[in-house]
Amino acid sequence: MDGPSFGDVLERGPLRLRPMRRRDEREWRELRARNADWLRPWEATPPAGGEALGFGALVRLERRQRRERSALGLVMEVDGALAGRVVLAGIEWGAQRSAMLGYWIDRDLAGRALAPRAAAMICAHGFDLGLHRIELATRPDNSASRRVAQKLGFTSEGVRRRYLHVDGQWRDHEVFARIADEPRIGPFWDPGS
After folding, report:
1. Are 86 and 76 in contact (CB under 8 A)?
2. Domain 13-179 is of which CATH architecture?
3. Number of other CB atoms surrounding residue 60 within 10 Å
4. Per the confidence metrics, is the pTM higher than 0.90?
5. What is the 8-class DSSP label of residue 44?
6. Dihedral over Cα of 143, 166, 131, 61: its sign
7. Taking 50 as the threshold, does the pLDDT of residue 22 lie above it?
């Protein structure tokens, strides 16, 4: 099959995006434990009665989603070490051709432009796969995530009330979107940077 695929590994400089593997478990658990407090205020959580997936179940789910083309979850590696995650979730094909972008980066690597670079890489890949629209939802008080949306030229489309369950409560989220045919201008979109 010619062209991009859901199994592609994406690389730019020291940043590599690839599917998660079973052998990542120890390093993944250490990364998540180190960043638990850093991520808690921003990361979606299951409401009461729900349960988060274990590592093995997450790897199996992401493999199935890649096969079905319903989501594309990738780990970020920086200089060979796990550094975070980026995902195009809830992919809809047919007339909609859309996805929701999500990402997080190790607190020790924040501020080095890795999150916007990883987001641009997976979005460009998603558009190359045939997506028309990618959305990003972030809490209005998450200034770092709002900056990522702005750096990548996403347009604010307003606030969705009580949109996602985060840190024990249903929280409002500002939704940003980007369309495939919008110009990809700036250093994060430039494959040479």
Report:
1. yes
2. 3-Layer(aba) Sandwich (3.40)
3. 13
4. yes
5. B
6. positive
7. yes
